[in-house]
Specification:
Elements lengths: L1 E6 L2 E6 L9 E10 L2 H8 L1 H10 L17 E9 L12 E4 L2 E4 L2 E4 L13 E5 L3 E3 L6 H4 L2 H14 L5 E6 L3 H12 L5 E4 L3 H10 L3 E3 L19 H9 L6 E6 L6 H8 L5 E4 L11 H7 L2 E4 L5 H12 L9 E5 L4 H10 L5 E4 L63
Parallel strand pairs: 10-11, 10-13, 11-12, 13-14, 14-15, 16-17
Antiparallel strand pairs: 1-2, 3-4, 3-8, 3-17, 4-5, 5-9, 6-7
Helix pairs in contact: 4-5, 4-10
């Protein structure tokens, strides 16, 4: 099969072995897979991500010097089930899944492994217990937005947003838009949305944000007074004494660049809560006294829960969210390396989808091997100088996302900006 492979620090389109389903796994055809900001990070900061994962006590399935196929925001078509599966999904069913592949040694993150392919390949493996069938009427492109929308759902849940909060989203890329969509799905607002890109500001308005700000022209923080947020502690005391409604500022940082948290802390009103959903890949600095003097609260968020993933699919299917408006293009495998470059340099682009069967069409799948002939799992190229790695329920219900024998660690799923 064909795939977009990170090799030698660049993306190349090449052939690789088709994966073979092991116990509990299902072989699927990738219909579409979104390019995530974390894919851009992994392309440029590959070794750093591996080193940092190890420094914080984790285990990375990406290996230095090895081929890796990214892609974790996918919608797929079921081809065939492996051994020891329950047969919940018929061939031809369209599905989405949390990007985790269960195996005898635990869960491996799809799209961040040098052993198994991610969604930028024509075929991939999914764990049957994590799969959800796509409801009729929802396109593959929109269904593939389940994963990034779940990131916004999780950020809003962790923020504990309520109608008493005054809301601001800084950065209207895929994560910022997912946050806005998730806030509006809860009926919360008004929302101040700030981004330098006119296209992204327009997308934020489509998501439902009421106050759209170009930071090059005006500070988004000028909006706090109109939202009922006191400019100082003294103003808050006076407003409360006068019986006025006082709202607490809640800011979502969805940029992920050095200096952003510090600048938000400097400009935010006292008592603000800043939820950091943007992923900064560099060492950053803040002045603690700024946050201490204003009693500013920082919350860092990552990933999502199985329930939030299922809720995101439901919201997309039922039209509760306008997040489908984040898509700005669909490309084939051969166009994917250029799409990465456009996302890195052209801020009018937001969410580009990769459709492996778009152009050229995938070659026909070969016949099964003769009886008694072993089919080996697909393996990517090994690290330099090393050896190869060893090694439904219908609708969008959540019951097939849980099992008493294991638990998903959502923080192990690198769904970032």
């Amino acid at each position: 099969m064909r795939a977009v492979i990170r090799r030698g620090g660049a993306l190349v389109v090449d052939e690789m072995a088709t994966p073979v389903a092991a116990a509990g796994q299902v072989l699927c055809k990738t219909l579409v897979c979104g390019i995530c900001g974390s894919d851009l990070h992994a392309l440029d900061h590959y070794d750093h991500m591996i080193d940092l994962t190890q420094r914080i006590g984790g285990f990375s399935h990406m290996k230095k010097g090895a081929d890796t196929v990214f892609g974790h925001e996918f919608c797929c078509e079921v081809l065939e089930a492996g051994p020891d599966t329950a047969g919940r999904f018929k061939a031809g069913a369209r599905v989405v899944s949390m990007p985790g592949l269960m195996g005898p040694d635990g869960m491996e993150t799809i799209g961040y492994s040098s052993r198994i392919p991610g969604g930028f390949a024509q075929e991939l493996l999914l764990s049957e217990m994590l799969m959800l069938e796509v409801p009729n009427g929802l396109s593959a492109e929109h269904a593939a937005l389940t994963e990034p929308l779940a990131v916004g759902e999780h950020a809003v849940a962790k923020a504990e947003a309520t109608p008493d909060h005054a809301l601001m989203v800084v950065g209207c890329g895929p994560v910022g838009l997912a946050v806005i969509a998730s806030l509006k799905a809860r009926g919360l607002g008004p929302i101040v949305a700030a981004d330098y890109s006119a296209e992204r500001r327009a997308a934020a308005q489509r998501m439902g944000a009421e106050i759209i700000v170009d930071p090059a022209q005006v500070s988004p923080h000028d909006s706090w007074a109109s939202l009922g947020v006191p400019a100082s502690r003294a103003d808050g005391v006076i407003a409360a004494a006068q019986g006025k409604d006082v709202r607490r500022p809640l800011i979502f940082e969805c940029v992920g660049a050095p200096g952003v948290v510090q600048s938000l802390a400097m400009a935010a009103p006292p008592g603000a809560r800043i939820v950091v959903a943007g992923v900064c890949m560099e060492t950053d600095a803040i002045e603690p006294l700024v946050l201490i003097s204003k009693e500013i609260e920082l919350r860092y968020v990552l990933g999502y829960t199985p329930e939030e993933f299922g809720a995101s699919l439901r919201n997309l299917a039922e039209g509760v969210t306008a997040y489908a408006g984040a898509i700005t293009g669909v490309v084939g495998l051969d166009e994917t390396p250029d799409a990465f470059k456009r996302l890195q340099t052209d801020k009018s682009q937001i969410k580009i989808m990769v459709a492996p069967g778009k152009w050229p069409p995938p070659p026909p799948r070969g016949p099964p091997p003769p009886v008694g002939e072993e089919r080996r799992p697909a393996e990517l190229s090994p690290p330099s100088g090393g050896s190869k790695a060893e090694g439904r329920e219908g609708g969008y219900g959540l019951r097939n996302l849980v099992s008493p024998s294991w638990a998903v660690d959502a923080t192990s799923l690198p769904s970032m900006l």
